[in-house]
Design a protein that fits this description.
The chain is 66% helix and 6% strand. With 154 residues, it is mostly helical. A two-stranded antiparallel ribbon has the order 1-2. A hairpin with a 7-residue loop joins β1 and β2. The longest helix is centred in the first third of the chain and has 27 residues. The mean pLDDT is 88.
Amino acid sequence: MPVAVPQSKTAEPDEVLALAEALRGPILKVSRKLRQEGQKVGLSAQEALILGYLRRNPGAGVSELADFEQISRPTMSSHVKRLEAAGWLTRADDAQDGRRQGLTVTPAGARKHEAIQRRRSDWLAERLVRLTPAEREALLAAAAPLLKLVTVGA
């Protein structure tokens, strides 16, 4: 059921709540399915996020990762140790601060991360092709505002 959302910046609280209700379920279901597809490659969703972050930010440390993912440092350290033991991450001493170690993704880790991304994209593409061109266009138009939900004021 489509929800009418006003074009002005001042949406009525009931309309915003109705939109939230309409989006919550579909977003959760798609997110869950994408996580499940990633797990078929052999990594948890958290570990895939860590590899992705480190591919974009090589040399980041455990504390930076924990802050970014909003989890405790000991929990992040456990994830990092598992990824390191699997050969997907390496540690290197920081050139400016010898007390700090930065993390980088190994070539094997990059391949694993790419496999997850490919599997998730393939799963999504298989479903997107079933939609009409207008439905795909609507999803494309929604991509930026959806991302804004988690990046603005986070």
